[in-house]
């Protein structure tokens, strides 16, 4: 029970501040899109013989990078793009899971986390993430806040707004990949 409490506390501690930026940036569906696409990461990891957690983390980072590349053109709204990416990768994940032979996959354990199943390694990863997010928050709070509130004004002030967007998006991808075990 102590592990569940500590794990929940760690994930909540990083999700709260980052969640504010998610709302301010209008990336409301970002978390759901990456969480749904993580099923493709599980399937690819099982097909390649890798640990599923590694597949989830790599796919979340890849999806976040893909989102950043596709969102640059501003041809469609960010939430529309996230919806397309989420459902396409979820469908591809289900297809890829059908190709996994000789292993029975419990989809519910990957789609819905189990806070009571956390082990000591999970806690180390969660609190490593807490250190990363708190450290990044202390170092980049002002430029990240400035680029979130008004990107043009932040650019005039000398803030590397593109770098802040990349940093924030990749940090969110890691938080989602780690937080999936808890939520």
UniProtKB/TrEMBL annotation:
A Pfam family of this chain: ABC-3
Job description of the protein: Involved in the high-affinity zinc uptake transport system.
Matches recorded under InterPro entries: ABC_BtuC-like, ABC_TroCD
Record's protein name: High-affinity zinc uptake system membrane protein ZnuB
Keyword Cell division carried by entry: no
Source species of the chain: marine metagenome
Membrane topology: Multi-pass membrane protein
Main localization, broad class: membrane
Any one Gene Ontology cellular component term annotated for this protein: ATP-binding cassette (ABC) transporter complex
Family membership: Belongs to the ABC-3 integral membrane protein family.
């Amino acid at each position: 029970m102590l592990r569940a409490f500590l794990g929940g506390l760690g994930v909540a501690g990083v999700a709260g501040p980052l969640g504010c930026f998610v709302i301010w940036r209008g990336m409301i569906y970002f978390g759901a899109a990456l969480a749904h696409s993580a099923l493709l990461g599980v399937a690819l990891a099982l097909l390649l013989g890798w640990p599923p957690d590694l597949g989830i983390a790599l796919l979340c980072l890849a999806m976040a990078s893909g989102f950043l590349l596709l969102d640059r053109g501003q041809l469609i709204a960010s939430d529309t793009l996230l919806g397309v990416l989420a459902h396409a990768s979820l469908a591809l994940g289900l297809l890829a899971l059908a190709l996994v032979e000789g292993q029975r996959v419990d989809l519910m354990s990957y789609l819905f986390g189990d806070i009571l199943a956390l082990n000591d390694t999970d806690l180390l990863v969660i609190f490593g993430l807490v250190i990363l997010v708190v450290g990044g928050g202390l170092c980049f709070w002002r430029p990240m806040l400035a680029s979130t509130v008004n990107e043009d004004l932040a650019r005039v002030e000398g803030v590397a707004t593109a770098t802040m967007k990349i940093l924030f998006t990749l940090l969110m991808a890691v938080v989602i990949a780690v937080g999936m075990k808890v939520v």
